[in-house]
Amino acid sequence: MDINDVIAQERSLVFNKFTSDLALNITNEINKFVKEKYNDPVAIKIYYEGKEILKFLMEGRKKSPWLERKNTTVLESEHSSLFVYFKRNENDYQSWAEDETYAICGGGFPIKISGKVKGAISVSGLDHLSDHQVIVEVLKKILHKESIEE
């Protein structure tokens, strides 16, 4: 995976609308996906329009400060935290590496509607590339299903 893959994911995995029910569905799908594919539990956070919609800790997972850091990274960069990881040696992102407010690693993904970042989905508990990929795989499934139903 490289920066071009991440840019393509960000362009294609966008929403027409976002609701609390959709946040719950995404969380349930991430929970199911992680249980089927990995042995490690994850923490999940969905933040939308200025508020935390949902936070879920899988059985055996302790509180994760990385969720907040990934969330902040997505909201301030308006990109996935993996995008920032690939661009970490450029511009403003260099200073973020030393700041515990941010996470320069995968696992945070933007909720985009009409080209604007309205929130973030964050996963923490696996290696950072897997945290990112879990979100991408679930969004591909959910957004494809959503487009078929419309």
From TrEMBL:
UniProt protein name: Heme-binding protein
UniProt xrefs under InterPro entries: PduO/GlcC-like (IPR005624), PduO/GlcC-like_sf (IPR038084), YBR137W-like (IPR010371)
Organism, as annotated: Lactococcus lactis
Classification via SUPFAM superfamilies: GlcG-like
Domain of life from the UniProt record: Bacteria
Pfam families on file: HbpS-like
